[in-house]
Structure prediction request, 573 residues.
Amino acid sequence: MFWDKKAETLKPDELRELQLKRLKKTLMQVQNVDFYRKLLSGAGVKASSVRTLDDIQKIPFTKKQDLRNGYPFGFFAVPLKKIVRIHTTSGTTGKPTVVGYTRKDLDAWSDLIARNMTMVGVGENDVFQNMVNYGMFTGGLGFHYGAEKIGMTVIPSATGNTKRQIEMIKDFGVTTIHCTPSYAMHLSEIAEEMNMSLESLRTGIFGAEPWSESVRRTLEKRLGVTAYDSYGLSELFGPGVAFECPERDGLHIWHDCFYVEIIDPKTGERVSDGERGELVVTPLVKEAMPLLRYRTGDITFLIEDGCLCRRGQKIARITGRSDDMLVIRGINVFPSQIEHVLLKIPEVGNQFMVYIDRINHLDEMTVEVEINREFFSGELADLAKLQKKVVKELHDALELRTTVKLVEPGSLPRFEGKAKRVIDRREAE
Amino acid sequence: MDTQKYVIRQISIFSENRPGRLAAIAHALGEEKINILAFSIAEANGFGVVRALVDHPEKAHDKLLSLGFNVAFTDVIAVKMKDQPGGLYEVAKILGDAGVNIEYSYAYSGKEGAVLILRVDMVEEAIQKIKTSGATLLERSVFH
Prediction:
């Protein structure tokens, strides 16, 4: 099912032509923003010097900090009277980032949500409970208007009062929910405590934080839904930037609205298809707040194979943040890759710590991992075998030799909130 | 022959190779008034397994488990040896001749003579051979 079949299945040359046309328009639009006038003249880039899509590489990146420096309205390219809504992102450090929308922006945004929801097969016969914050967070209103657009019956339940949420799912025959994966986990536990089965549920849309395949399996089992990953960020409207189709093997990012590059976070150079790096996006249809080459900080890669659903090229599920990236003996390593390897080895736990040292001018990575209580046979030989197995699996995934230390169950630190699993001791030298 | 009564439960404890781990284990057992008859430490790359023969294996297991240690039971056998030159040879030869492989072993020498604790690949076979050769095996019932 398509919401906008033409836009969703553009042929490569049609797509490039449209992207270039829209990029040129965006370059005109950014002329209304002081920051961009300076950025472009500083880099010696004129609107006319971008003749092909590849020419975009002449333009410097825009970073999150640049947006913060523009607080509050420094990045608006239209007068405030044309702005019909403002959202902000949670500022964990310093001031929040402000994003603004014209009427046309809101329409374009809800259209993307409509594409996503139609793609996973929901529509006017569905009852949709939107269990995210409706305040400044873009997830609430963003999904709300998209779901209304495709004619769903929308319940703006927002967050909190989980028992009431569960009653509504039951009483209103809710088929589709949207929330964070951690809230979905909580919801399923409370439903179990209340002895409530949520038989009407069929589709779960989860986003706003990273979640693993094992969480997907758990949620699907406990809630009886098919779970879809949703990706977005307020700087690029909000949710709806990329979304899983029923294949659930990567997320379709809407190339007619977002020009995608994947770069090496250290060098800023583009990486080749299939190689992991930071997602850089130039939104192509934003009016109130156009951006050029915005560094999302999210780590992914472009999936080379086409998709059965005939939509455009997919990105892999987000596997971490570029701030977390380590460079070890010249190889880029993301802690999430280590986590991914460990998840596949049942004999060890999911907690881990990574230590980086420089020994004789060489980087050495040590991974501490807990052995699983049930696995311990009492035999040293089995432990040695397990240690070798972890070393090999890590080597296969990272192309790096690591030292693996097996530690006692429960001995590694547990983190609430943001985990700090990497200790880089190389600076001390 | 009922060979099962000669199969003894050793407790095996996973331990990281860092200071204080053995002390923690020994302290826990001491608190429960559990006597350690024999023990050994096997060390590999950064970790080890502490193996112990104790008078109350079940109690030791539960206590260590409650403290968060990773504990497992391992079947071993214990053979009385003459505490004199050639004592070990007698026992080792019986097993060697029978083609029984010793995976690891440790020993203690007490008031009632010396005892060799063995982890072997073929437990039944080893017990049969040792019994028919006239040597004495400690019974499981010695440990509560």
User: Anything to note?
Assistant: Chain B has a mean pLDDT of 91.
